[in-house]
Design a protein that fits this description.
This protein has helices at 83-86, 91-118, 138-146, 151-156, 168-183, 217-232, 245-262, 269-282, 327-342, 420-435, and strands at residues 3-7, 17-23, 30-31, 36-41, 46-50, 55-60, 66-69, 73-78, 235-243, 288-291, 294-297, 303-305, 307-308, 314-315, 318-319, 356-360, 379-383, 387-395, 398-414. By secondary structure, it is of the alpha+beta class. Strands 9, 12, 15, 16, 17, 18 and 19 form a 7-stranded mixed β-sheet that branches. It has a 4-stranded antiparallel β-sheet with strand order 1-8-6-3, with no helix packed on it. Helix 2 runs parallel beside helix 3, helix 8 packs across helix 9 and helix 8 (269-282) packs across helix 10. The relative contact order is 0.10.
Length: 443
């Protein structure tokens, strides 16, 4: 057969849909293999999808800004280039489309009828993804429409899926709790904490000479994610100062030999990841997530590293199974992910599954910071810049003042499950590991 169906690819293990943000081709275009067809956006990653075949684009089935499930056909390519003949879908393709339309009509008749009855024959507008920067599956949107859940209510529901995605069980639990509030005097779980309800922002006007800049899609996602995190988790921050003199001396002495031997530059971040992974193994409660009144202790230690992109936005690629990698492995993986992030080449899998995050304030010569937790994690470590300072040290002949290399480490943690004792002990452990670095360690 000369027809080739282009489908929405599966961009990650937990990705079930994607938004087509841009088409690079139009119907009638002749393309070569590996020519870019369209751009897909998930929660944080924009991926360009190449064509696996050459031919003529005879049909584009999904418009820009369409939210498309994985596996659904988005375009048809005639590999023989017979544009006129290919303008009509083949019987098999047409039969699939008719069957899909029939199934869709049947499903719509089941799901839309209750909404029509409730609104007196007028269909209530469902919360659309244009009303929010969060993505919702067709099933979640259908349930929301049937239950007359407004877009604002949908925004307030805490999702248990990847990157806070609202899943079927989340919205059903919300509905059940809402129903209980009508028959009991107890407040529903979704409204038991008023702080979780989004407050209206004060009105802001632009003055003469002010420049108004529209947020891009990624910045909107980051903004919503940060606001959600502050509403969900009671943040507490602890700070320690670490003496990393031996670590600084070791890196300065060995960085050239390390690059010559392994072909990788070594920054301070691999050392921070190594120490954090070891501390997380000792304090597993910090390597967890909260699901209602349950705590999920994560088996794997997957550490996300905040990386600045050229457009000024941040993205968090994840070093998977960090506790299983040595310094060389951490350096190679970190450099690979950082380069991919800066060139917008990260895959969806590479930014998912994080269980803890590190953000490096020191890269901007900042000494300390109080970062916001990357949900659904319960902790995030900020590393400050390393500076030379006079410090009192103990010597065999008594105390002395010496020049030492010091840095601040700050830990923001979710006080629902991490109290001050645990957070403080965990942070102190990271500092101890860095301070006790073996200056004679081989490369």
């Amino acid at each position: 057969m000369s027809k080739f169906e282009i489908v929405m690819p599966k961009l990650g293990e937990s990705i079930q849909e994607g938004t087509i943000t841009k088409w690079f081709v139009k119907e009638g275009d002749t393309i070569e293999e590996d020519d870019m067809l369209f751009e897909v956006a998930t929660d944080k990653v924009d991926s360009e999808i190449p064509s696996p075949v050459e031919g003529v684009v005879t049909k584009i089935l999904q418009k820009e800004d369409s939210l498309v499930p994985v596996g659904e056909v988005v375009a048809i390519i005639d590999m023989e280039g017979e544009e006129d003949e290919a303008s009509e879908p083949e019987p098999e393709t047409q039969e699939k489309e008719e069957t899909a339309q029939s199934d869709e009509s049947s499903e719509d008749s089941k799901t839309e009828k209750p909404a029509e009855e409730k609104s007196g024959g007028k269909e209530k507008e469902s919360p659309s993804r244009e009303m929010s920067s969060r993505f919702y599956s067709p099933l979640v949107r259908t349930i929301a429409k049937e239950e007359n859940i407004s877009a604002e209510e949908l925004e307030s529901i805490e999702g248990s899926g990847a990157n806070g995605r609202v899943q079927k069980k989340d919205i059903l639990e919300y509905i059940e709790n809402r129903k209980k509030s009508k028959t009991t005097t107890e407040q529903p779980a979704a409204k038991s904490a008023p702080a979780q309800e989004r407050k209206a922002a004060p009105p802001v006007t632009a003055g003469e000479g002010d420049e108004v800049v529209e947020m891009d899609r990624v910045r909107k996602l980051i903004a919503d994610h940060m606001v959600m995190s502050k509403q969900v988790s009671p943040h507490v921050t602890s700070v320690v100062e670490a003496d990393v003199t031996d670590l600084v001396f070791w890196r300065e002495k060995n960085k050239e030999a390390f690059q010559k031997k392994y072909g990788e530059k070594i920054t301070f971040m691999p050392f921070f990841i190594e120490a954090t992974a070891a501390a997380l193994a000792e304090f597993p409660m910090v390597n967890s997530s909260v699901d209602g009144d349950k705590i999920i202790l994560r088996k794997n230690i997957n550490i996300g590293i905040a990386v600045a992109r050229p457009d000024g936005n941040l993205i968090v690629p994840v070093v998977k199974n960090a506790e299983q990698k040595n310094l060389v492995g951490l350096s190679k993986e970190l450099n690979r992910l950082a380069n991919a992030a800066r060139n917008n080449k990260l895959s969806a899998d590479e930014i998912q599954g994080g269980t803890f995050t590190i953000t490096n304030f020191g890269s901007f010569r900042n000494i300390i910071g109080t970062p916001i937790i990357n949900q659904p994690q319960v902790g995030i470590l900020a590393t400050g810049s390393i500076e030379k300072k006079p410090a009192v040290i103990e010597t065999p002949t008594g105390d002395a003042i010496a020049i030492r290399h010091k840095m601040f480490l700050s830990l923001s943690y979710d006080h629902r499950v991490v109290d001050g004792a645990l957070g403080g002990a965990f942070l102190r452990k990271i500092a101890d590991i860095l301070e006790d670095f073996d200056i004679n360690r081989s490369i």
